[in-house]
């Protein structure tokens, strides 16, 4: 499995971010062919001090090639292009193969 992780910094208008993200961006994600599963949270906390991020999003793909194909697809490009409509604080996108830690 391969995971894409989006770390969102504090936006200029947190209420707009939440509203737009839930009502506009996530419906795009919901119809995006490629991810096996996805999840998000606005309740980001640090074990000590302030959390450096406002929100997180994770998407799991079969492998890196599936993630690349999903991102390059017309729908994936629409998902990416929509980010400017709510993520005014910036973001970091990372991806990595997921290793099984059980057993």
UniProtKB/TrEMBL annotation:
Pfam families: EthD. Residues 10-88 form the EthD domain. It comes from the Bacteria. PANTHER family: BLR8190 PROTEIN. This is EthD family reductase. It comes from Streptomyces coffeae.
